[in-house]
Amino acid sequence: MSIANCYKELGYCQLMKTPAERLKWARLKRYASTSEAARSTSLHRQNLADHEAGRRKISTEQAKTYARKFNVSPEWLLFGTGSPEIESESDAEMTIPLAGIVSAGAEAVFIDQSENHPANEFINFKLKDRLAMKVAGDSMSPRFMPGERLVFGPTSDPHVLVNQEVMAQIDDGPLVVKVLRRGQTAGKWSLFSHNPAHEPIEDVVLTWVRPLEGWMK
Questions:
Q1: What residues contact residue 91 under an 8 Å CB cut-off, 6+ apart?
Q2: Residue 212: pLDDT over 90
Q3: Superfamily for 3-79?
Q4: What are 116-157's pLDDT values in tens digits?
Q5: In terms of C-beta density within 10 A (0-12 exposed, 13-18 middle, 19 or more buried), how is residue 198 classed?
Q6: What are the CA-CA distances from residue 199 to residues 93, 170, 202, 215 (Å)?
Q7: Collapsed DSSP state (helix, strand, coil) of residue 215
Q8: Which of 31, 49, 177, 200 has its CA 20 to 30 A from that of 142?
Q9: What would the pLDDT profile of 31-69 be if each residue is shown by its tens digit?
Q10: What pLDDT score was predicted for residue 11?
Q11: CATH (residue range 94-216)
Q12: Over the stretch 64-94, which tens digit does the pLDDT of each residue have?
């Protein structure tokens, strides 16, 4: 296990799975406490403590501020992608396209794939082959709320994404954002919403899946 993917606390090495854990690791590399970090960087101590504890979500701009203060990559801080080390200043940012709107439909979550999104809906990070979705409906609540944007990684083998949140293209069906489960038939999959009011989509063939890497306000 790489030190870039874990931090040492109370005598053990813990895998960092959330932005809160990565933020704490980045802060501990430079400051022993949130109070010391706040005094040295002009950060708001309580906000920092809340973000480290996972009581509040870290927005895009907050992640970029923390990244500057703690000398880490904002992409790594938010999504756990790549190395925490800051890349060259000459590296151009990639634009993550906003592929659509995640909304609650009568039978399933559907995607508005219109390309007529305002420029400020796109997300700039140094990440390749990612797609973003803006939450508009309630099928993912309370996990994700309307207005938040979800970022999905490159297409992957569904077998390694079981019980994870994914963007999935159903064969001859809609593009959905759901929790992936194994289907009752070999080679088929079932997709569940966080909101129990929405019925699962069961035993379908998937063309491709992308794992959820992170989200932002």
A1: 126
A2: no
A3: lambda repressor-like DNA-binding domains (1.10.260.40)
A4: 544 445 455 656 677 777 777 666 667 777 778 788 888 889
A5: buried
A6: 39, 16, 9, 24
A7: strand
A8: 49
A9: 999 999 999 998 999 999 999 998 988 887 888 899 889
A10: 35
A11: 2.10.109.10
A12: 899 889 988 888 888 777 667 665 443 445 5
Residues in a beta bridge with 156: 209
**Are 192 and 181 within 8 A, CB to CB?**
yes
Closest CA to 160 of 189, 199, 129, 192: 189
Q: For residue 60, give the 3-state DSSP assignment.
A: helix
Residue 121: partners with Cβ closer than 8 Å, 6 or more residues away: 98, 134
- Residue span(s) of the chain under CATH 1.10.260.40 come to 3-79
* pTM of the complete model: 0.58
Q: Which residue has the tokens 């439909």?
A: 105
205 vs 34: CA distance, rounded Å: 48
Place of tokens 């992957």: 156
Beta bridge partners of 180: 191
Q: What are the residue ranges of CATH 2.10.109.10 in the chain?
A: 94-216
Q: Which two tokens stand for residue 216?
A: 């932002």
